[in-house]
Design goal:
5-stranded antiparallel beta sheet, 1 helix, Phosphatidylethanolamine-binding Protein, mainly beta, 3-stranded antiparallel beta sheet, about 180 residues
Length: about 180
């Protein structure tokens, strides 16, 4: 079976920068901390720590997205979408996506994930599927704020990211049963 392309592979090429984490690594299996606490999984449903550097000097804000392109939906599954992160913020602590926004900088907006709530939704691929890829992306943007509100969908945010991303950094861990 051919796997879908990675998230944002159809977007224009932009420079990359460095994304690191104390919790996840490229190609490595997610720990229980980043696995869902629902849908038959007993994980902790904690968003990972993320830190970034080397982005363009003209960056005016950041957005963070977590997407599973392998979800059997026809459009993947958006696990976390965070926008309007100020340009002077270069790190999010673990569990920043708890849904109450207390660990996020002031003014940051969490968009509903595909499970229907604001916050991070841990990995939860269907039992028996091959391991899914979880594309954690930090987008450096040329605007201070995206013109979206809390009712926006991930698709609307993605549309805006298409036109405002000036650089992108990714980590792609995996998880499967």
């Amino acid at each position: 079976m051919t796997r879908p392309p990675l998230t944002f592979s159809y977007f224009p090429d932009v420079p990359s920068f460095t994304l690191t984490s104390d919790d996840i690594a490229d190609g490595e299996v997610l720990s229980d901390a980043q696995v869902a606490s629902s849908m038959g999984y007993g994980g902790l449903n904690r968003s990972p720590h993320l830190a970034w550097s080397g982005f363009p000097a003209e960056t005016k804000s950041f957005a963070v997205t977590v997407h599973d392109p392998d979800a059997p939906t026809g459009s993947g599954f958006w696990h976390w979408v965070v926008v309007n992160i100020p340009a002077n913020v270069h790190e999010l602590p673990g569990d920043a996506g708890s849904g109450d926004a207390t660990l996020l900088p002031a003014g940051v907006l969490e968009i509903r994930n595909d499970a229907g709530f604001h916050g991070y939704m841990g990995a939860a691929p269907p039992p028996g599927d091959e391991p899914h890829r979880y594309v954690h992306t930090v987008h450096a943007l040329d605007v201070e704020r995206l013109d979206v509100d809390g009712n926006a969908t991930a698709a609307v945010v993605g549309f805006n990211l298409r036109f405002h991303t000036i650089a992108r950094a990714q980590l792609v861990p995996i998880f499967g049963s």
